[in-house]
Amino acid sequence: MTEHLGGAVVPTGFDVPVEPLRRATHFTGEPGCIAEARMFAALFVEQLRTEWCATIGERTSGALLLVVSELVTNADRHSNGPYILELEGTDATIAVSVYDSSAALPLRFPRDPRRVGRHGLEIVHALARQVTAERVPVGKRVRAVLTLSAD
User: Fold this and answer.
1) Which residues, at least 6 apart from 21, have a Cβ–Cβ distance to it below 8 Å?
2) Which of 27, 65, 70, 85 has its CA at a distance of 20 to 30 angstroms from the CA of residue 102?
3) pTM over 0.90
4) Residues 6+ positions from 120 with CB-CB distance below 8 Å
């Protein structure tokens, strides 16, 4: 519900969305998929700012794009089929879920600055407040939840 006061639109609190904003897309593993996933996430952030009036700073936005890149890269490298990127957000959090066809759960290796590669899940854990991986009927789902801030 919205009231009009002297030409100004004043939200009354009843017009706030109650369902999280959800968007999903799928990728086949073709070259350019990771860049497309980042663009998809950037558009999602803009839509969340508009529809939920979410305050999302550049640092948080960058962290989201990095999490999307890492999870989509892992799905691209370790599954034998297409994968799905699903984003769900409110004014407080964004959840990034990636579904792929491999049933093998990802491994988080201990910190080792001498190791080349295999730091993706370590990065995701550092940026997200919660990271889960579970088997689903089509393979697995890896989900990371980020807290939004105006940084």
Assistant:
1) 44, 47, 48, 51, 52, 87, 88, 89, 90
2) 65
3) no
4) 70, 71, 73, 74
